[in-house]
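Lab notes, practical 5.
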Amino acid sequence: MNDNLTPDKDAINQLIHEFNKLPGIGPKSAQRVTYFLMRASEEEARLLAEAIFSLKQNIRLCSVCCNVTESDPCPTCRNDGRERSQICIVEQPQDILALEHTGIYKGLYHVLHGAISPTEGVGADDVRIRELLDRLQDDSVKEVILATNTTLEGEQTALYLNRLIAPLGIRVTRLARGLPFGTELEYADDVTLTRAIEGRQEF
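Output from the prediction step:
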C-alpha cells in the first residue's frame, strides 16, 4: 500500500462496522483488524478475500450428519473406521472439533445447527431434528449421545430429543455433569470433555 494515499474514511468505517458484527470482535478489535489490513499488502488482502469467498462457495452441509464439509458425505461419515452404532448429537459444527480434539470418541455425529428456544422463536422444526430421525430408522444405531450444551436451551433440546428417541428402543445417554451448567462444548477443555464422554449416563 502507498503510505502517501489517504484512505477513504467511509471505507474504513464500513469495514470496522462489518468486523464488529463477528462474534467475539468488539469495536476496538474491529478497528485493529481494519487498520492492520489497511497496512497489509494487496496480495495479503486478496488472499484473505479469496479465502472468505471460497468458504462461501465451497462449504455445504453433509447430507448425512449435517456437518459443514467440502465433500458430501463428509470425511467422518465416509470413514469406515468410525463406530457406526453411535451417534453423538451436538448443537454446532465447532462442537465436533472440540470432541474430536479429545481423541476418545470414535462414533458418528449429528449437527442440529441450533437448540430449541421458545423465547427466541426457535422450535423443533428450525433445527435438524427431522434429518436425525431419518437416520435412526436404520437399525444399526444402538446409542445416541446427547451432547447439547449445558444451557437452558441445550437442556430443553436434550429433553425433547429423549422423548422422541427413547420409544425407538435406542439407548439415550447424556454427557456426564463434569461440564458446569452454562458451558458451551467448544470452550470446554480436553480433560473435562474426556471425562464427560467416558462418564456419560443414561438419560
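Observations recorded by the TA: Strands lie at 60-61, 68-69, 83-90, 107-111, 143-146, 171-174, 201-202. Confidence is low (pLDDT under 50) at residues 1-5.
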